[in-house]
């Protein structure tokens, strides 16, 4: 027997109010509980990554600094973005037009930073695998710090550009009161936030994969050097190959979570972001922030050891930052 949803107004005292469709109580509570758990889980896991890399001196490497930047963006997703995904249950926006625009504006910055961090991570692995002899000279902690800073600054200015009309006049694209809709130029966002960065990630990782496979064969054959095209003959360390595989999983999961949203955007030059329609697609993007630290837990022994030291409060001991976690 089909359950009919009761139609009500978001603001009964306003004639211009949007209509809302109530959900069964059990369904609503289930979604609320699931969203709350995933949000809390995302915040805690990424906080553990942030504390681990920040505290332990051994983890202050260029690659881990990129992971730290990614963990910060993932942490902000769990803290600021996921709680507002209650639109999956409640289609009415009760916080006003300005908060609506600011929510999507901040979300856009965080998502942009995640994409940019993935590009930096792919470039880092490309240099580490394809040019290992010069990696320590080309990729230094200082250069990575500057790159991460520029990455976040770029995302802020890019988001201001994309949301300028919405920030100038919040609520201008709403059709009724209680709706949260923003408009961005989909063609620009598709090129700048998806096609260009994703193409760069795929090209870099295809190159990394080819070199990694060749180096793995060379190691099994007890060959000390392999020549690839006209490059310098070197042998990549097993640790670098393992890191490339792990980060390859991170990149693959990232692509699977981000592709649905941009595939939908291909059908329109302008993207009208409305919570009642696109909330699930946006949530899939946000869920990627929960998956990243889970991948670290499976593939990085240093993360598991760091978490144990954090949970047991051993990091509070003097000189704990010098503990061997590798």
TrEMBL record:
<dbReference type="InterPro" id="IPR050569">
    <property type="entry name" value="TAAR"/>
</dbReference>
<keyword id="KW-0297">G-protein coupled receptor</keyword>
<dbReference type="InterPro" id="IPR000276">
    <property type="entry name" value="GPCR_Rhodpsn"/>
</dbReference>
<keyword id="KW-0472">Membrane</keyword>
<dbReference type="InterPro" id="IPR017452">
    <property type="entry name" value="GPCR_Rhodpsn_7TM"/>
</dbReference>
<keyword id="KW-1003">Cell membrane</keyword>
<feature type="transmembrane region" description="Helical">
    <location>
        <begin position="279"/>
        <end position="299"/>
    </location>
</feature>
<protein>
    <submittedName>
        <fullName>Trace amine-associated receptor 7b</fullName>
    </submittedName>
</protein>
<keyword id="KW-0675">Receptor</keyword>
<comment type="similarity">
    <text>Belongs to the G-protein coupled receptor 1 family.</text>
</comment>
<feature type="domain" description="G-protein coupled receptors family 1 profile">
    <location>
        <begin position="45"/>
        <end position="296"/>
    </location>
</feature>
<dbReference type="GO" id="GO:0001594">
    <property type="term" value="F:trace-amine receptor activity"/>
</dbReference>
<dbReference type="GO" id="GO:0005886">
    <property type="term" value="C:plasma membrane"/>
</dbReference>
<feature type="transmembrane region" description="Helical">
    <location>
        <begin position="184"/>
        <end position="210"/>
    </location>
</feature>
<feature type="transmembrane region" description="Helical">
    <location>
        <begin position="247"/>
        <end position="267"/>
    </location>
</feature>
<keyword id="KW-0807">Transducer</keyword>
<keyword id="KW-0812">Transmembrane</keyword>
<keyword id="KW-1133">Transmembrane helix</keyword>
<feature type="transmembrane region" description="Helical">
    <location>
        <begin position="29"/>
        <end position="53"/>
    </location>
</feature>
<dbReference type="Pfam" id="PF00001">
    <property type="entry name" value="7tm_1"/>
</dbReference>
<feature type="transmembrane region" description="Helical">
    <location>
        <begin position="65"/>
        <end position="89"/>
    </location>
</feature>
<feature type="transmembrane region" description="Helical">
    <location>
        <begin position="144"/>
        <end position="164"/>
    </location>
</feature>
<feature type="transmembrane region" description="Helical">
    <location>
        <begin position="101"/>
        <end position="123"/>
    </location>
</feature>
